[in-house]
Amino acid sequence: PYTTLFRSGKRYLDTVASLWNVNVGHNRREVVEAIKAQLDKLAYYSTFQNTSNPPAIELSQRLIRMFAPEKIAKVLFSSGGSDAVDTAMKLARQYWKLTGQAGRCQFVSLKWGYHGVHFGGASLNGNPLFRTAYEPLLPGCHLVESPYSYRNRWNEDDPARLAALCLQELEDTVQRVGSQHIAAFVAEPVQGAGGVIVPHSSYWPGLRALLDRHGILLISDEVV
């Protein structure tokens, strides 16, 4: 963590690495020098209209190699997590239109989940702090219980039983809304802003199987 000394004489520690994105620390000389070297070669170039540049291509290839076990074949860069989530939502809707199922346009997400500050992501947010002031939000967004043993509607503190209850509620929601209307389920593998909620090991495999059974896409918001 980086220590800053202000005029007041107080010392502050950045123990959360800013927005959790400065995990290598502040003012690391090798990072600063790498940025300066890149600015000397190419400061900026848009990839908006099917154009690219060597650093973006090299980084894309490196990420694809890193995520080979996940069978990642393409990389789309954004300016932040909120952009990434809204883009994923648009891609999900576009996917179903291209497959002749334009009626799949709704989304399901978790209570206490956080998916950004743009309108789409805010509609998925499960924490009232990040959604109430902007309602009504995007229609067709449904919240289901999070596998959070500290706060859940069943007061269940056994992680395995809680995972099963959460998956059953999701199943009930899919049946109520209709899988033919649901584009994707959106969730963080570990919920960050909601309280660093780590689900039981049975939750995500069960979730994957449930979504596959109903043909629902999974958007894994792994920004944190």
Can you describe this structure?
A four-stranded parallel β-sheet has the order 4-3-5-6, sandwiched between helices. A two-stranded antiparallel ribbon has the order 1-2. It has 224 residues and is an alpha/beta fold. Helix content is 38%, strand content 11%. The model has no long low-confidence stretch (mean pLDDT 93). Helix 6 (159-177) runs parallel beside helix 7 (203-214). It contains seven helices and six strands; from the N terminus they run ββααααβαβαβαβ.
List the helices and strands and how they pair.
Layout: E1 3-5, E2 11-13, H1 17-20, H2 29-41, H3 54-66, H4 81-98, E3 106-110, H5 119-124, E4 141-144, H6 159-177, E5 182-187, H7 203-214, E6 217-220
Parallel strand pairs: 3-4, 3-5, 5-6
Antiparallel strand pairs: 1-2
Helix pairs in contact: 6-7
Q: How would you summarize this macromolecular structure in one to three sentences?
A:
Helices cover 38% and strands 11% of the residues. By secondary structure, it is an alpha/beta fold. The protein starts with a strand and ends with a strand.
Main attributes of the structure:
7 helices, single chain, alpha/beta, two-stranded antiparallel sheet
SS field, number of helical segments? 7
What is the percentage of strand-forming residues?
5-15%
From the N-terminal CA to the C-terminal CA, the straight-line distance is: 17 Å
Q: If you compute it from the alpha carbons, what radius of gyration comes out, rounded to the nearest whole angstrom?
A: 20 Å
| Beta strand count | 6
- The helix-strand sequence is EEHHHHEHEHEHE
The biggest sheet, with number of strands, parallel, antiparallel or mixed sense and barrel status, is: 4 strands, parallel
**Spans where pLDDT lies below 50 across 5 or more residues:** none
Helical/strand content category: alpha/beta
Q: Overall pLDDT, averaged?
A: 93
**Rough shape?**
globular
